[in-house]
Amino acid sequence: MASRDCIIALDEGTSNAKAVVVNAQGQAIAKASRALQLQTPQAGWVEQRGEDLLAASLAVLREAMAAVGDQRIAAIAISNQRETVIGWLRASGQPIGPALSWQCSRTAAFCQQLRRDRQEQPIRQITGLPLAPLFSASKMRWLLDNTPDGQQLAANGELCLGTIDAWLLWQLTGGQSFCCDQSNAARTQLLNLASGDWDDEMLALFGIPRTALPQVCPSSHRFGITQGIDGIADGIPICAMIGDSHAALYGHALGQTGRVKATYGTGSSVMAPVEDVVQGMTALATTIAWHDGKRLQYALEGNIPHTGDALAWMLSITGDVEAQLLNQLPDSVADTDGVYFVPALTGTGAPWWDDRARGVICGLSRSSQRAHLIRAALESVAYQIADVIAVLRSQPGFNLRQLMADGGPSRNDWLMQFQADLLGCPVVRSNTAELSALGAALLAMRQLWGWDRQRLQAMLPQHDEFTPDMQRHRQLQHSYLGWQQAVLRTLWQPETALSSGEQAR
């Protein structure tokens, strides 16, 4: 019989569920993937079916396990889309409604009321997060408010609320384990950063009974064992759970200082490891990167809801372009001809945090062509990353050594070079497409086999480097000023402008 020398990492994202088998040398030796769908029942609402997330996750686990033989699987690791929330009945495991996506802004009015009630500062002080519908707590409240007897069921312990890691763990263990990890818990606005556990004040503020929430555990931890899943052997331990963006940071460099991670996906997360909680930060979130079983790692993060999604949207209205042409099309024009696309399609994220903002295409002229629009969409990805980096660079003692890139859009060489030139610092792109899965697998190895940092360091993947052209960097600063002016247009509200005009008269 083959030895159990592999970790299977389930990477449940927004657009795809993937399973990757990682061997003891850190190599991905089998993969499986399934596409996932988003539903948008009305403006600003984004959701998925929890049953679809589970079905896709189980399918890719079975397929990847079959490729190597389940007798080689030592443990399961999970990385997952963050902030997305689902509720289910404890007795049956059936969802009470859709999984509310991290992109969903249906709770914007509720968040605005909290802001009017002057709750933004206490929320930020305790949880490290700005007040925004991106985060999980207001979504949990919406589920309770829109479920018959939701509050009573939750208070009685008959209803479970959780991020996607908790949902998958519950199902994989046959309902025997109801836990989440600290990285996911830190994204809910219900976790106290100082204690690392649910905060009573925040639970009361959002109206979430503690009895409905999972137990908070380290990211590298034995969470339970598989039980009762067709096609998956019983008894396989789940030894790591972590938010996908955090897992990517771990998979890049295990959290080395000065190395900032940018995940280019549907949205983007720009994350920088820091030694302790940063007080007084308003533009970015302070969060828990992970707990590796021995040490809690904090991070500063900027969340951007529409980066790859912005490019996909632009392509959908201008006509599909083959992926390989996206490296060539931007260079078919000298610049965007003054066009800027600010993709605030469900509001802006960091550092602006305006959930009422909506997207803008500005600077159009009779000479504007399709190539200018698509190039503007690509540039918008880099500009949004630069907005977050600008805030990081303003922090005392912060030194950006390099930007570590991962995610689907990072495969675009033109975009990576533009990002390096815009920032004036090296951009290094991971040459593995499974970075979140790898990061989760490394944490599982740490828990299961006790491997130390030095052992894990040797397993990190190689990177492709894009060196900045400093002359072009200086030239792009004028374009960046134009971008910032375009962003201000998305923050403009007609009723505010009308009111100002009436006052002026």
Automatic annotation (TrEMBL):
Tell me which residues make up the Carbohydrate kinase FGGY C-terminal domain: 261-447
Supply the Gene3D superfamilies for this chain. Answer: 3.30.420.40
Query: The organism sits in which domain of life?
Result: Bacteria
Which molecular function terms from Gene Ontology are attached? ATP binding; glycerol kinase activity
Q: Where is the Carbohydrate kinase FGGY N-terminal domain?
A: 7-251
Protein keywords: ATP-binding, Kinase, Nucleotide-binding, Transferase
Q: Does the keyword Transferase apply?
A: yes
Q: What are the GO cellular component annotations?
A: cytosol
User: What Pfam families does the record point to?
Assistant: FGGY_C (PF02782), FGGY_N (PF00370)
Q: Which GO terms describe its biological process?
A: glycerol catabolic process
The family note in this entry says: Belongs to the FGGY kinase family.
Protein name from the UniProt record:
ATP:glycerol 3-phosphotransferase
Protein species of origin: Serratia odorifera DSM 4582
